[in-house]
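Students often ask why inverse folding is considered easier than folding. One informal answer: many sequences map to the same fold, so there is more than one right answer. In these notes we will look at a single instance of the problem. The structure comes first.
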């Protein structure tokens, strides 16, 4: 069986290499029931992909998704019947799923890129150092790993065929994928997060598509009982990307970025590789529009590591009077220069897969409005009146209700030692429902980007905002990003981690080559390069309290950034970049006082340590592949810091 799987999974490449591999699947040889849709309506390539994997995974049924309302209702009904989701009756068409507690986040340690040469995927770290910039697996080793898992993995289950578009259907900036999955939860989630269904097949025509194979890894009948009726196989989980054939194979996890393959796997990991080949950028960035009281509007893209408030910023209600923010996307940006040299961005996603805890009417009223209908919640707590609950909503639920935690503990109370909701619990909700979606959020041409913003959670030393001196310095700023660890992956504790470009878990290829790609963009003949900034909303004072109020007040920083884009003389040089001149941030209407001195202080010892840490990181992790321009920027920063008076 193992070699059969190997041949099937690798058929494209082996054929390219000239071997004579038979194509196994014919309509006659199939042993599955077509329970929905019609294989004859698929293009020959899609049909071939479906049939060869049906032969491999041996599902009982095949269902070709059309993305219709009727189909969605049927799947929600089945999920409910099988105990995977329950209705949250307080809202319209909202559902709660509880996963097996061992399947709650992305598993970076089990996520691999597979290329012939290791160095195409990841930098080779310095001898004796454990690499942190992704995992590589040799093609042959991957073949055997996949062959130990996929053959027969869908036995007794239905294989769903999901044609989906990342980006508006038909946009020249969009790309199409086909996901095969044995999870109906994945289907209903992909329907929210992507444009999915029949219209995508029409748009596909004879073009290439990204092949996404996903299985929860629990063929039927199961030998062990399921926890929360949630099938998964955490011990054998693997998430593999094969850039050469544009394939993703994910096994063992049903949750989040591990299973909704359009998101991190396609739009960022394979996306960043396509972007490098085709001269564009696939980035872990939100996109928002900001309009000032004069009606002048700009769009910015911003990269923050997971759990730094990207969704909150993307949906912000600005507290600056007369300003308006609109949302284009909260997690991923695909950006390309147009024929006039203007960088333009689309959000490839159609929904938000947002972290629930911390989201409230105070922190993100627009998200709260968005999630009141047609939303799938996962691993949040539930209230006795049929609502949702998580940390941060304490003041927003009626006093009389009781709370059942994500682990099923009834009568959960804030005094309980454990959280009510998992820290990485999520809402999966259609972007179109967000009250502040930008009029152009689905514009096939994308929106023009004026500035790129990097940021992280930095309790110490890093000011509220600074601007890079030029493009190369900006690339260096992105490359040296650091932030406190997140619950979105399996890391523990609040350590400060390097997270270059907020892409550390999502690079599809060697980070050294990625920096080179960014640096080279400015060589495009007519490109207007956006200015690059760094922000930090999370600086703390000596008492451990945040100095800056954040949330809606962050509009003041965005306004300063837009005025810099317009060339206003409101910045002065510091050792790390341009910082706001005194009184240049609009402070009108800001409640309470902010210690601006503490917010913008640049302690020399801190930056000396920072230079040292960045150098160590680059030397150890990126080693031979650090571009010369980045070393030059580090040396320049070092010199500026050293020449700073104490
Ligand atoms: C996410 C993440 O899920 O960045 O968006 O982890
Ligand atoms: Mn993200």
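Output (designed amino acids):
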């Amino acid at each position: 069986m193992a070699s059969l799987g190997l041949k099937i999974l690798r058929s494209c490449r082996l054929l390219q290499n000239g071997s004579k591999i038979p194509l196994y699947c014919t309509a006659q040889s199939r042993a599955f029931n077509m329970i929905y849709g019609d294989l004859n309506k698929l293009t020959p390539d899609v049909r071939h992909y479906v049939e060869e994997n049906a032969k491999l995974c041996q599902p009982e049924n095949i269902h070709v998704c059309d993305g219709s309302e009727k189909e969605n209702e049927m799947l929600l009904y089945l999920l409910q019947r099988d105990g995977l989701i329950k209705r949250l009756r307080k809202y319209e068409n909202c559902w709660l799923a509880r996963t097996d507690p061992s399947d709650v986040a992305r598993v970076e340690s089990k996520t691999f890129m597979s290329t012939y040469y290791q160095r195409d995927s990841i930098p080779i770290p310095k001898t004796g150092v454990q690499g942190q910039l992704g995992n590589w697996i040799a093609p042959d080793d991957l073949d055997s790993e996949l062959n130990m898992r996929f053959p027969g993995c869908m036995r007794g289950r239905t294989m769903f065929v999901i044609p989906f578009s990342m980006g508006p259907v038909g946009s020249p900036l969009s790309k199409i994928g086909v996901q095969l999955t044995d999870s109906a939860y994945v289907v209903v989630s992909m329907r929210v997060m992507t444009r999915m269904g029949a219209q995508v097949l029409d748009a596909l025509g004879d073009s290439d598509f990204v092949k996404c194979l996903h299985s929860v890894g629990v063929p039927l009948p199961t030998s062990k009982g399921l926890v929360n009726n949630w099938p998964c196989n955490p011990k054998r989980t693997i998430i593999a990307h094969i850039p050469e054939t544009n394939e993703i194979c994910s096994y063992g996890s049903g949750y989040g970025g591990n299973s909704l393959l359009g998101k991190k796997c396609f739009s960022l990991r394979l996306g960043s590789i396509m972007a490098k080949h085709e001269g564009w950028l696939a980035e872990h960035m939100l996109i928002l529009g900001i309009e000032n009281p004069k009606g002048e509007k700009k769009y910015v893209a911003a990269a923050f590591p997971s759990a730094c408030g990207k969704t909150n910023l993307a949906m912000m209600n600005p507290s600056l009077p007369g300003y308006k923010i609109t949302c284009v996307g909260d997690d991923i940006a695909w950006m390309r220069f147009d024929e006039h040299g203007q960088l333009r961005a689309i959000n490839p996603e159609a929904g938000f897969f947002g972290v629930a805890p911390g989201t409230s009417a105070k922190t993100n009223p627009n998200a709260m409005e968005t999630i009141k209908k047609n939303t799938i919640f996962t691993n949040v707590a539930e209230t006795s009146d049929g609502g949702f609950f998580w940390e941060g909503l304490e003041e927003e639920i009626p006093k009389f209700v009781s709370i059942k935690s994500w682990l099923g503990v009834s009568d959960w109370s804030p005094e309980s030692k454990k959280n009510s909701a998992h820290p990485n619990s999520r809402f999966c909700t259609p972007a179109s429902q967000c009250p502040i979606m930008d009029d152009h959020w689905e514009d096939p041409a994308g929106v023009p980007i004026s500035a790129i913003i990097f940021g992280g959670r930095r309790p110490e030393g890093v000011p509220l905002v600074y601007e890079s001196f030029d493009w190369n310095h900006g690339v260096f700023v992105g490359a040296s990003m650091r932030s406190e660890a997140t619950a979105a992956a399996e890391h523990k504790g609040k350590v400060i981690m390097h997270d270059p470009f907020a892409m550390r878990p999502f690079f599809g290829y060697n980070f050294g080559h990625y920096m080179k790609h960014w640096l080279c963009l400015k060589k495009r003949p007519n490109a207007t390069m956006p200015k690059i900034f760094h922000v930090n909303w999370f600086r703390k004072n000596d008492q451990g309290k945040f100095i800056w109020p954040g949330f809606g007040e962050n509009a003041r920083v965005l306004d300063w950034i837009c005025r810099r884009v317009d060339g206003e003389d409101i910045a002065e040089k510091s050792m790390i970049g341009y910082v706001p001149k005194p009184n240049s941030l609009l402070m009108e209407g800001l409640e309470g006082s902010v210690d601006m001195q503490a917010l913008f202080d640049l302690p020399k010892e801190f930056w000396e340590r920072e230079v040292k840490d960045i150098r160590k990181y680059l030397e150890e992790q990126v080693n031979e592949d650090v571009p010369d321009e980045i070393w030059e920027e580090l040396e320049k920063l070092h010199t500026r810091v050293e020449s700073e008076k104490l």
